[in-house]
């Protein structure tokens, strides 16, 4: 998988999330990497891990995608609500990755955490099988 492939999937996820007005009413931003100047709540796409999913005449990859949501809300309610909206948005069937075909996208799980500085975090994990067009 080339750097262009990483960029394509990040760009597709980011664009798909940003296009959801209801979701973006609650999030201050969606980023590819931490932006410590950004106001909470926000989401970060990544990290990812990939493995080969190729077959004869098929250049495919198996992705494990993590999306992290951060909030300063004193309870986990806000971060879990935003995580559920992100999950629903990504599974709505509209995610398109330029130059790739998304053969399968599956939600694998969610973990909620609380940092020492009072920031709540939800980590969503997805599995995606994609191949080049």
UniProtKB/TrEMBL annotation:
InterPro entries, per database record: Gp17-like (IPR021508), Viral_Tail_Comp_sf (IPR053745)
A Pfam family: Tail_completion_gp17
Protein name per UniProt: DUF3168 domain-containing protein
């Amino acid at each position: 998988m080339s750097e262009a492939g990483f960029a394509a999937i990040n760009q597709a996820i980011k664009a798909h999330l940003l296009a959801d007005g209801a979701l973006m009413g609650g999030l201050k931003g969606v980023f590819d990497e931490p932006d410590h100047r950004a106001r909470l709540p926000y989401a970060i796409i990544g990290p990812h891990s990939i493995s080969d999913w190729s077959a004869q005449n098929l250049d495919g990859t198996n992705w494990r995608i993590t999306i992290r949501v951060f909030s300063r809300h004193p309870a986990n309610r806000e971060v879990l609500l935003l995580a559920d909206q992100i999950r629903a948005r990504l599974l709505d069937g509209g995610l398109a990755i330029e130059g790739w075909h998304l053969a399968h996208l599956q939600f694998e799980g969610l973990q909620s955490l609380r940092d020492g500085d009072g920031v709540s975090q939800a980590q969503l994990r997805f599995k995606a099988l994609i191949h080049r067009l």
